[in-house]
Amino acid sequence: MQEVFDQSTRNDKREKAQELQAFIAASNAAAISLSGAALKALLLLNGGAAIAMLGFVATMATGDRASLLDLSEVVSVLQVFALGAGLAVLATGFAYVVMYFQAAVAQSFDLTDEPPFYTNGNKTTLLARVYKIFHVFSVLTAFASLGSFGLGVMWTGGIVSIAGM
């Protein structure tokens, strides 16, 4: 009788572990999708701002306020937006490396017959550390891209006010 109870408890734990793994997989898929959308948005935000800045310069250069425009300031703002776009691309690359190492960590586990039905393999700890490092790099680079956009917007405001717009 005790063996039947133990087997039933083991099956319940196995089902709970499978449910938890399914939830983690669904949450991970949502996080990947949302992070990809955020990184695309950062690239579009900075790239669009650079293009808008070029349009502003073209409009100013053909008008009577061309002498009010400090081209070195404009070039600096364009560089800030270009840096933001580049950082968004770099963050996307880091995100790819994160996904690669996440898969490597998942593959490094050894399966067992006892709950939680897996243990760390020989390389799991090392791969998990590398995964976490690149995850931090990706997040910090994305925030730097957003910060670059904010700096560019503030700097653009100064240029526009100096030009008398």
Automatic annotation (TrEMBL):
Keywords: Membrane, Transmembrane, Transmembrane helix. The chain crosses the membrane at residues 44-62, 74-101, 133-155. This is Uncharacterized protein. It comes from Sulfitobacter pontiacus.
